[in-house]
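Revision sheet: structure tokens.
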Amino acid sequence: MYMYLPESKTTIEVGIDIPLRLLKHRVPSLQTSTDENDLTVSNRVIEADFVFEGIDNTDYYLIQHEIYPLFIREKPYYIYFQRMPSIMYRVLCEPFKTDKFGVNGVGSFTLNFHVQGGYGRSRGTTLSPFTFDSELWQIGMGIPHEDLKYTFKENIFRVYNAGHVTIDPDKKHELIIALKCEGSPRIKNHTTGSLYQFNKAMKYSDKLILKGIKTYLNNDLVSKYSNHKVIKLAVGWNDIEISGCANPEASFDFPFLY
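Predicted:
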């Protein structure tokens, strides 16, 4: 099992520094409900069973003292597992206690990780290299056997979403669209029907960033000049059109959700 800490951008392999071993883990399916076509994801909890072995009774409590702060943290972090190393989950851990066996230093415990937002996400994003050497991708992620592009210099192009879930920034899904052009751009996804419009003329030296539900122009927040809409990306191919401007250069950066 691995833990990725986004604040420090560090990865911890659980069991390297502490005599701790993961016995098994269980990732449940998503629980969803639909109310008037609005999909809601219920709580998703990953269970993981661990065992540790100290050399004596005192060592047991020393190891316990190290285990607690390893998993109980103030801010969410990501976990992923050796069998599916390219999909990680943003989690917080429930409080827990260890169980001691006999008079030696052996103990065990079970962790309940609450997945923030419910979904797993790819460790890589669409602007990461799509190579197995990058160690960010694996089979079973829905990635087709063809070259995928996420940077474009055309007005009409296609964007592929290999995940199981529509990317929707209104639901706090990660999506960064960067655009350079001349004019007042409109971005239309003909597949989902979503339309974004920027109601201010851009110079080619300008850079427009759609990050979640916010719009930035040259790092300044300019959402008030937009139509306050987002681009949604359906599962599979999305037919995108950029209009109202000349010489567009666009990129779509997002993780796949599972």
